[in-house]
Amino acid sequence: MLTKIFSLQNIDEAAELIVKWELIAFPTETVYGLWANALDSQAAEKIYTAKGRPSDNPLIVHIAHFRDIDAIASIPADKRASIEKLATRFWPGPLTLILPKKEVIPLSVSGGLDTVALRIPNHQTTLKLIRKAGVPIAGPSANISGKPSSTRFSHVFHDFDGKIAGIIRGWSAEFGIESSVIDMSGEIPLLLRPGAINLETLREVLPEISEYIPGKNTIARAPGMKYTHYAPKAKVYLFEEGAKHILWKYKENFESQGKKVRVILPENISHFGKHLFHILRESDLKNYDILLISAVSEVWVGKAIMNRLRKAASEIISS
Ligand code: TXA
Ligand code: MG
Q1: pLDDT digits 0-9 by tens, 105-153
Q2: Residues with Cβ < 8 Å from 288, sequence gap 6 or more?
Q3: CA 98–ligand 1 middle distance (angstroms)
Q4: pTM for this one?
Q5: Which of 48, 97, 170, 193 has its CA 20 to 30 A from that of 116?
Q6: Are 218 and 186 in contact (CB under 8 A)?
Q7: Which residues form the pocket of ligand 1, taking CB atoms under 6 Å from any ligand atom?
Q8: CA distance linking residue 82 with residue 205, whole number of Å
């Protein structure tokens, strides 16, 4: 398949292709998404095939206005005030809300669940594309399943050239970390995935938000969590706070075995967050065998970064 490259000024054809069930990769403020018509199950199937994504891992549906929710999801009466508060503060933006889905959303989009994840992304051109397409748009991160998300055009091109109808060449993602995902369909609001908006800020609006702790909560509320994620080809060793002093011993040891080793010592957390996926992808292109990464403290976006790093790691060294 010939993959067309569109500029940000030339999105009309891309919008038409989405309506016709084709896949288009598009930048958002968090990461690039792989977008398709969310009302069509065949379009959704194409996403799973192109990414090699397990079919029980649901997709986020992107909309342009709060009022677009009504056609595709129900707002539980006892949650309306909370949902409106979150939307007023954080939409458009890197927040995804999970609500009970309506029938128009195919089960292939929701990974077989009776809920749907919704987000209004924060960029004028992204929103223009959604309005032009005139349909809600299903869009997971634009990466081969299990690999780091794409934050630059070159990342998407690497993963999907020849496999999808088009890629919009846009900006490098502003956050570089995916949206925060809150499940609003259960009794209490549950943060399923820490993301670009940190928990402290979310709790300023809704103090009752709890954190999903894998293994602790009995139901598998976050299907995406059971899969390997964000992993580069190189083996990642993550050194937690108390173990940083032994990182250099690991370096010596691996180098004496002839391995190509990269040491990553993050300094500025938000800068590191923005470039994390690029660093992981670049390490593959440069054929590193081993990445030794020192943990960041879990404040602000540090929590989302550590969530990604723990999933990317083959080994976590804690002391
Ligand atoms: O920033 C983002 O959220 C990006 C951009 C493109 O919008 N999208 C993104 O999508 O990160 P994806 O598919 O890579 O991650 C979506 C996460 C997955 O962990 C998935 O399991 C979870 O959201 N999710 C989606 N729908 C869900 C649902 N109904 N119930 C529980 N989890 C859901
Ligand atoms: Mg993803």
Answers
A1: 999 999 999 999 999 999 889 999 999 999 999 999 999 999 999 999 9
A2: 234, 260, 261, 262
A3: 9
A4: 0.95
A5: 170
A6: no
A7: 28, 30-31, 33, 57-60, 94, 96, 98, 110, 113, 115-117, 119, 121, 139-141, 178-179, 181, 192-193, 222-224
A8: 8
